[in-house]
C-alpha cells in the first residue's frame, strides 16, 4: 500500500507543481518543492476522497521528504 500511495503522491504533487513526475522522488525535500499550503490541502483532500479516510494535516507537517509523507498517509488510509 505504501508504494501505491508514494506513486500517487508523486503524481499528484507533480501535477500541482506543473513539473514532470520524474523530477520527484521519495528523497525529494518537501520544503524545497515550493508547494503552497492550498496545493497540499488539495492533495490531502484527494487522498481522503479516494480512500474514504481522514488525514491530519498536522501529522504531515513533520515529514521532510515525499517518502516520509507517503509513509504517514499510508498509515491513515
How do the strands and helices of this protein lay out in sequence?
Blueprint: H1 2-17, H2 37-51, H3 57-60, H4 66-76
What does this protein look like?
By secondary structure, this protein is mostly helical. The chain has a single domain, classed as ACP-like (Non-ribosomal Peptide Synthetase Peptidyl Carrier Protein, Chain A, Orthogonal Bundle), CATH 1.10.1200.10. The chain has helices at 2-17, 37-51, 57-60, 66-76. Helix 1 packs across helix 4. The longest helix has 16 residues, at 2-17. The N and C termini lie close together (9 Å). The mean pLDDT is 92.
Structural descriptors:
mainly alpha; Non-ribosomal Peptide Synthetase Peptidyl Carrier Protein, Chain A; 77 residues; globular
Amino acid at each position: 500500500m505504501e508504494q501505491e500511495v508514494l506513486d500517487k503522491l508523486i503524481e499528484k504533487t507533480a501535477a500541482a507543481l506543473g513539473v514532470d513526475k520524474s523530477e520527484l522522488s521519495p528523497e525529494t525535500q518537501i520544503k524545497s518543492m515550493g508547494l503552497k499550503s492550498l496545493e497540499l490541502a488539495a492533495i490531502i483532500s484527494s487522498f481522503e476522497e479516494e480512500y474514504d479516510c481522514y488525514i491530519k494535516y498536522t501529522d504531515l507537517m513533520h515529514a521532510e521528504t515525499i517518502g516520509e509523507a507517503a509513509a504517514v498517509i499510508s498509515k491513515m488510509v
